[in-house]
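Note to self: user wants both folds in one dump. Writing first protein now.
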Amino acid sequence: MSLNRVIVMGLGKVGSLVATLLHESKFQVTGVDAVKREGFPFATTVANLSDPASLRPLLAHADAVVSCLPFHLNLPLAKEAHAAGIHYFDLTEDVPTTNGIIELSKTSKGLMAPQCGLAPGFIGIVGASLARKFDRLRSIELKVGALPKHPRGKLGYAFNWSPEGVINEYINDCEVIRMGKRANVPALEGYEIVTINGVQLEAATTSGGLGTMCETFDGKVQELAYKTMRYLGHFEQIKFLFQELHMQDDRETLGKILKNALPPVAEDYVFVHAAVEGWKDGVLSREEFVRAYPQMQVAGEEWRAISWTTAASLCAVIEMVREGVLPQQGFLKQEEIPLDAFFKTQNGAYYLQGEGR
């Protein structure tokens, strides 16, 4: 199936960059938003994004649709892509949404590829790449932190990403492999200290970051977990707010409070820490991939680290599908994507510019 005409749904902070990067990668792009958007180098149109059925005329003339919409709109859009027989890509970390897309992929004519962002997404690609270096695995530890470069206050955070998404990560249970068995554990557990480039961070379990990796590595590894990294002291304050004050029972109010208290900032870091332990030729060893990605110039404009790392990962996957490096049909697991080929794409190459350990 050819892949040239791409519809990008949602032209917010990440969606507009996704559409721009795909345009620069020689795709024929149409951006769709709920309000009129101008000034882009690609075509745009207005549509009711909460009514995927109304988008059918657009999808009928596309090879793929990319969702940069809130997670609750992804599955309805995926169903429309499935019905149109085209490729589908998104950034979701929501487990029920992904499970629904897996079901659709069993009869899809195109590729169904959710979870193409940072975590799940790039971090899984890195973790699986490290795991392939071992004859036998002991543990896979994956961690990501999107943080302000100049933290303030006890939370040391800024909502450069969706408050709703962060709240879900902090509240929903987390799938892991523990002592060789798949399990669900509470969020904000497994506390540890991590140091990257001399910066001390804390890490704890959060939901959704592993994507489908527990299924893939079931029976192959003793320990597998995803954790979010924050500046020291953050999780103590979050537990007080969520658990002791019971704000987790009112997610809408909690989102308003956090968004008001911690507005976005222009300068940020995305910290990535992947470590795998196992045996090579009978010898126990450890492989690591550790980077700090700052905000940088992308497509002639300064972009936050969380924006460009998310958008570039998604666009690199779409490039690889176009070039025939990845499957053209069914369901795509992020951990099946070869890291070397990822870095060779126009958009994956941005990830080679991070600050190494």
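First done. Writing the second protein, which came from a different request thread.
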Amino acid sequence: MTLSQTSPARLTRTRPAPAVGIVHLGLGAFFRAHGAIYIEEAVAASGGDWGILGVSLQSPTMRDHLAPQGGTYTAMEMGPEGRKARHVQILREVLVAREDPEAVLRAMAAPEIRIVSLTVTEKGYCHEPATGRLNLNHPDIRHDLTAALPISAPGMLVRALDLRRRAGLRPFTVMTCDNLPNNGRVVRGVVLDLAHQIDPTLARWIETEGRFPATMVDRIVPATKPEDILEVAEAIGAHDAAPVMHEPFRQWVVEDDFVDGLRPDLGAVGVQLVQDVTEYEHMKLRMLNGTHSSLAYLGYLSGHETIADCMADPVLEQTVRHLWQAEIIPALTPPPGVDLHAYAAELHARYANPAIRHRTWQIAMDGSQKLPQRILGTLDTNLQAGRPCPGLTLAVAAWMVYVSGTDLDGRPIEVKDPLAPILKEAATSARPVAALLALSQVFPQDLAARLADPVARAYELLKANGARRAMETLL
């Protein structure tokens, strides 16, 4: 009889976590498979009170899964040669902000907290992706402008920083780990925008004393599926309700700019500590995330479930090679010592890893928030330089088909996006390309004007010939 047919004991803590020094907002799979592991290794290498208190901003699910396990979980590395389990024990506790926002604010305002990190996804910053500014009309921000107990991530940061200022404490460092270009600048901007609305004196204190290091994070972490939980139980001999599955590769580049220099010894465990992360961000956002999103929409419309399935299709495999070599690399300045062609080859191997089942539907979520930094920036650079971009233009057209809620064969698509109703209305109008390009929340309007004709042609090609034939025709 296998473990999946019996009831294995629950995973539990085998050693104490260090005292808490970090609060992390948005305790999803990615941070638990990436940043938490780096921090645990840094503590093991050099010590320090850098235990993590996790915060779920909305759902209690993660707390309910992890609390019976003492906050511990399994990180399962999935490589072509097999799987390797790691018991992660750096997390001490999980709070749920919607249940008790006051407890979260107290935790963030505690003197021992030196860093508040975030993985709240692009939409969690309540900003306009096309401009990077705080969206003052966002319902969560409208709430947080007047309420002492906030519900948004920017609101949590501003109110907790205010508590520290009033108590005579130093601010914590705000370290975003989300896939946003200039992510440190974005989170600093939305925090200052909100603080200025609430109390200009607070905003000046944050602006002067606060630190918002930008980061670049890289590891493919597919959503955990029920069958993964069974496989983890088989592997470790215990039931883990919240394992994370990840590829072997990982990278973390961090601007070394922390309040009073206080941080874990990240450099001891392979984190690249730099003065400016911009070139690393652009490389990763455009070469990895840009092609991931392109494959998600074109792959989904071609009938493929995962990125590995896309890479097994010669048409999509050739498309992604074209994107790297002809459209994305020419628009980038490589970070010091980095060979972008070698990086592309490494990405190719990672995408083709059959052990990682990263679903196109999962990557396609929240496209209105992702397109500006993943694809539109490259398009803008190339169009200004006079370089044609048939592949990325086709990817934008594929997104336009996708958000209509119906695929090329008339089957329904469940579109998950904060702008889903607006997108569907535009995408199903008499002139869908023009209507979608007119959405300033997604497209800078000067770029939209230059995209109008090429995207319209790509859209018509998709509708007339299907995704695979459109790729073969254009590329």
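Dump finished. Worth passing along: The mean pLDDT is 96.
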